[in-house]
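Hmm, what's this shape?
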Amino acid sequence: MLSFLGTLFLLSCGADSTPLPDPGPPPPAPEVSASDTLLNLMGKEIERGIEEGNLERLVSLTDYVQFSERIYFPDSLSKSEREHAEKVSSKSASDEDGVGTFWKGLIRSVELGVRVDYLSTRRSDGSRLLFRLVFPSGGLSYLELLLGEGDGGMPVVIDLYEYLDGEFASRTIHRLIAADNRDPLFQLLNVSNRAAEAKEKLYEASGLIIQGEFAKADYILNEVQEPYRSMRQIEALRLIVRRGVNGENIYRKALSRFLKKYGKEPGVEVALIEQALNFGQLGEVLQLTDALDSLVKDPYLNLMRAQAYYQNNQDSLAQHFIESVVAYDSTFVLPYRISLLVALHQNEHALALEQLRQLAALNDRWLSLNDILQDPMAAPFKVSSEYSQAKEYIEEIVKKK
């Protein structure tokens, strides 16, 4: 669900050319001698930098020259291309077209309510830092930062892999490199009008996606012009936003076309789980969640299992997985939301009151209380003795929005 971050980075590069064919496999991942302890510290530092909006620090942990080398692979950088990459790499974090663009996208997402958590170091196919992204609407996504070695052998970020995209950002940029003799590094200091326009539309659409305004986001994404409209990341985003716009048959046809075109790459489950949840497909949700869990090993994925069981009226199993998530992280608001729904469904008003108390304490400003309390299953709760006490927590939540 966070594909737009990488896409904004690509568009900031000002690509204005005919897309190339399949760029082929990425270059081999470099060896990184740093210990897991040091890499874990780096992961936590990046998490903190994103939360605090510390662009200068985040940019200092990124090596744009190595990223450029991965863009051009299997070719090597020419002297002028390397000088160009070094010039971009040296630009300050405040510049609009420098390496800070991707980090700005993540920071902007946090401002919109996305939570970014560092999870672990991965040593399969290079050294990577795995991050979890939690959306206010309840969606989850994952991002891996590929590491190389910078000055003095210190680890630096040299590429990024978003699970939804199914490929490294460097390969996506390679796909858009100009086929003629123009500077193929996207004229980084001369962003084209079409790229700038697409970038603005994506910023607008990204905020709507995070807030669950899928129909509006779909309309805006439909206005993105070629060649950007045909980018895999844009098509993946358009697939996601249609979950609340079109019926199941239309969605399944769109999904079939997407998978046929791009293949089912590792991590595509991120998009498919939410679609299966939307259509109440219990077996498919569980199968996809298990597949994704084998990659990321994230206890938060029990939230997907809880939602699936709740939607299929298996409240006891839903509550079991809710409790496992709360045991792992008692500050995470989403399990309390589902537990509130379970309590209302079972007419357990004392439990519903407790969940509202927890949500108020955790400052859940994204909770849509109107949608919940206007549901017919909330009617008995609204005439119960507990509801008069609940009003205090409801008013507190609404006041913090």
In short: Residues 3-244 form one domain. The mean pLDDT is 79. The longest helix spans residues 193-210. Strands lie at 115-122, 128-134, 140-149, 155-162, 167-168.
